[in-house]
Design a protein that fits this description.
This protein has one domain: Vaccinia Virus protein VP39 (Rossmann fold), CATH 3.40.50.150. The protein is 27% helix and 29% strand. It has seven helices and eleven strands. Strand 6 and strand 7 form a beta hairpin. The protein is globular and about 60 Å long. The two termini are 31 Å apart. The protein binds S-adenosylmethionine (SAM). S-adenosylmethionine (SAM) binds next to helix 3.
Length: 236
């Protein structure tokens, strides 16, 4: 079955070109959480055009990228070896092949969180890190969004259906992209159930570079979530 991300290469490239927030916020946060070590081998799950791979390789580490979008994979190939894959399926990786793994802005596009974390736990050696950067769950909740108090113009955040799993569909070029929403607890528990030990969590507000006029100067509203885990010693 063909999925929407197979047709979104052009849209995603345009998003990156139009948004300095990625280079200023997402990439540095991911690198900080992953803390890549020279000589170590990492898996980039959902590598896109390979821009995170490039930054990790620059630290002296090696990276294998995987993605389902062949157009983006062709670009990522310039940064290191790549594999066509359909997450959460990581059956093609032998156990403990990697010293660590990461995924930048990918998890919110996957339906099956449990299989994703379990597959990565198989692929990474004991003690190895997993770093994720995702759109903050407060931001992905269906029916959430900014509301302006008409009396004084103050901007508030409407929670929407934050506490339930759900999804939203956003326009993406000529197509659409689906964001799966899970409350923070669901994300953290799914990782714990798969044997990932939480090390660090970072929450970031709306960047000053936002293109949304309603959210300009609303740095107190959560926008990004970053998490670092390590693969627990116990075999789950
Ligand atoms: C928002 S882009 C992020 C790309 C890259 N990680 C980055 O930070 O530039 C999401 C990426 O996840 C990939 N993706 C989405 N669903 C996937 C799936 N089921 N299996 C593999 N890749 C997937 C898309 O093709 C796309 O490259």
């Amino acid at each position: 079955m063909r999925t929407e991300w197979e047709d979104l290469a052009e849209w995603w490239q345009q998003e990156l070109a139009d948004d300095s927030g990625y280079a200023e916020e997402v990439l540095p946060l991911l690198l900080d959480l992953l803390d890549p070590r020279p000589g170590n081998r990492y898996l980039d799950a959902g590598c896109g055009d390979g821009r995170v791979m490039r930054a990790v390789v620059e630290t002296g580490a090696t990276v294998i990228g995987c993605d389902l979008n062949l157009e983006l994979l062709r670009l990522a190939k310039a940064e290191g070896p790549v594999v066509g894959c359909r997450l959460p399926n990581l059956d093609w990786i032998r156990p403990a092949t990697f010293d660590g793994a990461y995924a930048s802005l990918v998890v919110e596009h996957l339906v099956d969180l449990a299989s994703f974390f379990a597959g990565l736990a198989e692929a990474v050696r004991f003690g190895g890190p997993l770093a994720l950067v995702v759109n903050h769950p407060l931001f992905t909740a269906p029916e959430s969004g900014p509301v302006v108090d008409p009396t004084d113009g103050e901007v508030f955040w409407r929670w929407g259906t934050y506490l339930e799993d759900g999804y939203t569909e956003e326009p993406a070029g000529a197509g659409r992209v689906t964001f799966y929403h899970r409350p923070l607890a669901t994300l953290l528990n799914a990782a714990a159930d798969a044997g990932w030990s939480l090390e660090r969590t970072v929450e970031r507000g709306v960047p000053t570079t936002t293109r949304d006029p309603l959210l300009a100067s609303q740095g107190h509203i959560p926008r990004l979530l970053g998490v670092r885990w390590t693969r627990g010693e116990e075999d789950f």
